[in-house]
Amino acid sequence: MKKYVFLTVMAVFFASFLGSTEAQAGSSTLKLSVSPTIPAAEGTIKIKKMSDGNTSVYVLVKHMAAPEKLTPPAVTYVVWIRANKDAEPQNVGMLSVDKNLNGELETTTPLNSFDLMITGEISGQVQKPSGQPLLWTSFSS
Fold it and tell me: What's the whole-model pTM score?
């Protein structure tokens, strides 16, 4: 009886492990590092390789500070992606924060490996980050 229970438990374990590995094969979830200037904030990105070779990036943040309360004050948050630390960051979208201080953005990049960062900005149309990253991470496929 003990042998049967052991084998059943092992079978369930391996089946769940194989199932979760298969489900995660095409996507990754990473936690964002957070600046001490907004210590309550937290964020994640979900990255998924698409059939056309591009990479889908879904950014989710919670407990953000209202942009106008940053130092210096900002109007919005902008998400940036760059190929590496020496490359120029590209503005991939404005991250709107709702009344509960949560926000999300979905974008696509042709990069397979990249750095992602979020900054406070005076406009969602800026071409270069004006301050230090508030949240950030790096992804390598």
Answer: 0.81
Torsion over CA: 75, 139, 59, 53 (sign): positive
**Amino acid code (one letter) for 96:** S
Quick one: which of 130, 136, 135 has its CA closest to 75?
130
Phi, psi of 7 (to 5 degrees): -65, -40
Assess if residue 16 is contained within a domain: no
Q: Is the peptide bond before 36 cis (omega within 30 degrees of 0)?
A: no
What is the residue-level pLDDT of the chain in tens, covering all 141 positions?
Answer: 544 433 333 333 333 333 333 334 578 999 999 999 999 999 999 999 999 999 999 999 999 999 999 999 999 999 999 999 999 999 999 998 999 999 999 999 999 999 999 999 999 999 999 989 999 999 998
- CATH number for the domain including 116? 2.60.40.200
Residue 7 within a domain: no
Q: How many domains does the chain have?
A: 1
Residue 124: domain span: 26-139
